[in-house]
Amino acid sequence: MPKELSTIKELLFWSYANLAMAHATLSRQESKYSRLSFIIRSRLFAGLMSGKMSLGSMLDDERIKIEYSDVCAYCGDTASLSIDHIIPKIANGTNSADNLVRACKSCNSSKGGRDLMVWHSKRGEFPSILILRRYLKLVYCYCSEHNLLDTTINEAITMSLPFDVRLIPIDYPSPDKLVLYKYK
């Protein structure tokens, strides 16, 4: 981990860089993080922090959502699908396509109005890489729109936000414990 993460921006960029490292490792079908994985993380984090790089657009996420539109984004089930807000409507989540995914009735009901990371934490799970990628982008957009990126993490913990900043992952499980996308 780089020096102590102190702002929401640093936290989100570090998490996103770790996500890119995990995604690249899974895509190469490797069972552990390699030197290349750590280089990817380091360069992306530095690029994001310097402004020379940016988070990927939602376009890829939308393509994936369409590709997997017949499965629950959380568990991969294909029965009784409905629409779920990643950032819940009750927490000021929008009705925009970026915030909507297909979810089976069981996952949708279980998640309810909870934050994605709170729900996964209660279940003892780490979300799939692609749903987490979308979540991190949504949180980043929210923070950017509300001028919160330079807010300290300690200050953010005390704020009423539609996400729990303490649950944004800074350490990711080993690749053998991760999945790219849930499907059965």
Question: Could you please describe the fold and organization of this structure?
Answer:
This protein is mostly helical. It has seven helices and two strands; from the N terminus they run H-H-H-E-E-H-H-H-H. The radius of gyration is 16 Å and the shape is globular. The longest helix has 20 residues, at 8-27. The relative contact order is 0.20. A two-stranded antiparallel ribbon has the order 1-2.
Write the layout of secondary structure elements.
Elements: H1 8-27, H2 35-50, H3 58-67, E1 81-85, E2 100-104, H4 105-111, H5 116-122, H6 129-145, H7 153-158
Antiparallel strand pairs: 1-2
Q: What distinguishing features does this structure have?
A:
7 helices, two-stranded antiparallel sheet, single chain, 184 residues, mainly alpha
Question: Short summary of the structure?
Answer:
Helices cover 45% and strands 5% of the residues.
Structural class: mainly alpha
The level of helicity is 40-55%
Along the chain, the helix and strand elements come as: HHHEEHHHH
Average pLDDT, all residues = 92
Number of helices: 7
Overall morphology: globular
Could you state the oligomeric state of the chains shown?
single chain
Fraction in beta strands: 5-15%
Radius of gyration: 16 Å
Biggest β-sheet, characterized? 2 strands, antiparallel
- Could you give the distance between the termini? 34 Å
